[in-house]
UniProtKB/TrEMBL annotation:
<dbReference type="InterPro" id="IPR004265">
    <property type="entry name" value="Dirigent"/>
</dbReference>
<comment type="function">
    <text>Dirigent proteins impart stereoselectivity on the phenoxy radical-coupling reaction, yielding optically active lignans from two molecules of coniferyl alcohol in the biosynthesis of lignans, flavonolignans, and alkaloids and thus plays a central role in plant secondary metabolism.</text>
</comment>
<keyword id="KW-0732">Signal</keyword>
<comment type="similarity">
    <text>Belongs to the plant dirigent protein family.</text>
</comment>
<keyword id="KW-0052">Apoplast</keyword>
<feature type="signal peptide">
    <location>
        <begin position="1"/>
        <end position="23"/>
    </location>
</feature>
<keyword id="KW-0964">Secreted</keyword>
<dbReference type="InterPro" id="IPR044859">
    <property type="entry name" value="Allene_oxi_cyc_Dirigent"/>
</dbReference>
<dbReference type="GO" id="GO:0009699">
    <property type="term" value="P:phenylpropanoid biosynthetic process"/>
</dbReference>
<dbReference type="Pfam" id="PF03018">
    <property type="entry name" value="Dirigent"/>
</dbReference>
<comment type="subunit">
    <text>Homodimer.</text>
</comment>
<dbReference type="GO" id="GO:0048046">
    <property type="term" value="C:apoplast"/>
</dbReference>
<protein>
    <recommendedName>
        <fullName>Dirigent protein</fullName>
    </recommendedName>
</protein>
Length: 190
C-alpha cells in the first residue's frame, strides 16, 4: 500500500518537473540589463606559425585531424585544428604599439562546412595601469562582421566581472596574421 502511494507521488513529481521545463522556451524571462559599468576597447594581434616565422609567431597549431599537420591550417575550413596563442594586446590597431597585456588561450575550428571557431582565453594585464585578468569564452562565427562572446569573469582590477565582448576582424592577412578588435562592455563591476 505504502509503496503505491510513494510511486504515485514520484510520478506526479516527475510530471510537474516536465511541465515546468517545457513551458520555459517561449516565456524566457527578459530581465532588463542596465548600462555597462565599464567600456573598454583593445586590439590583439595573432601571428600564426607557418614554418618560417618561428621568431615572430604568437600562436601555434597544437592539434590537427588526421588529414592535417601542425604547420599549415587544415582543409575543410580548418576543422579540428586547435591553436594556442599568446598575443600582444594594444590600445590601437598598430602591431608595434607598446603592448598593455597579453591575450592568452586557444581557439578551436569547430565546423567543417563554414569558417567558425570556439574561443577560450584571458586578457592578462600586469602593468602599473592595469593588473588582473578578464576571461572570455564563446562561439566565434568568423564570417560575421561582429561576434559577441561572453565575459565570464575576472580577477584583480576586474574582480568578479561579467559582460559581453563584441569582436570584429580588424585586419586579416592570409593565414599568417589577423587582428581582432574587442569592444568590451562590462555589466558587473566591483
Ligand atoms: C618579424 O617581425 C619583424 C618586425 O615586424 C619583421 O621585420 C620581420 O620581417 C618578421 N620576421 C618574420 C620571419 O616574419
Ligand atoms: C602540411 O600540409 C601542407 C598542406 O597540406 C603541405 O603543403 C605541407 O608540406 C605539410 N607539411 C608537413 C611538415 O608535413
Ligand atoms: C607582474 O609584474 C611584477 C612587477 O613588474 C612582477 O614582479 C611579476 O612577476 C609579474 N607577474 C607576472 C605573472 O608576470
Ligand atoms: C551573426 O550575425 C547574425 C546576422 O547578422 C546575427 O543574427 C547573429 O546574432 C550573429 N552571431 C553572433 C554570435 O554574434
Amino acid at each position: 500500500m505504502e509503496l503505491t502511494t510513494r510511486l504515485v507521488s514520484v510520478i506526479l513529481f516527475l510530471l510537474v518537473i516536465r511541465v515546468g521545463c517545457s513551458a520555459s522556451p517561449h516565456h524566457w524571462r527578459k530581465k532588463r540589463v542596465g548600462e555597462p559599468c565599464k567600456k573598454l576597447v583593445f586590439y590583439f594581434h595573432d601571428i600564426i606559425y607557418n614554418g618560417h616565422n618561428g621568431k615572430n609567431a604568437t600562436s601555434a597549431i597544437v592539434g590537427t585531424p588526421a588529414w592535417g599537420n601542425r604547420t599549415i591550417l587544415a582543409g575543410h575550413n580548418h576543422f579540428g585544428d586547435v591553436v594556442v596563442f599568446d598575443d600582444p594586446i594594444t590600445l590601437d590597431n598598430n602591431l608595434h604599439s607598446p603592448p598593455v597585456g597579453r591575450a592568452q588561450g586557444f581557439y578551436i575550428y569547430d565546423k567543417k562546412d563554414i569558417f567558425t571557431a570556439w574561443l577560450g582565453f584571458s586578457f592578462v594585464f600586469n602593468s602599473t595601469q592595469l593588473r588582473g585578468t578578464i576571461n572570455f569564452a564563446g562561439a566565434d562565427p568568423l564570417m560575421n562582421k561582429t561576434r559577441d562572446i561572453s565575459v565570464i569573469g575576472g580577477t584583480g582590477d576586474f574582480f568578479m566581472t561579467r559582460g559581453v565582448a563584441t569582436l570584429s576582424t580588424d585586419a586579416f592577412e592570409g593565414e599568417v596574421y589577423f587582428r581582432l578588435r574587442a569592444d568590451i562592455n562590462l555589466f558587473e563591476c566591483w
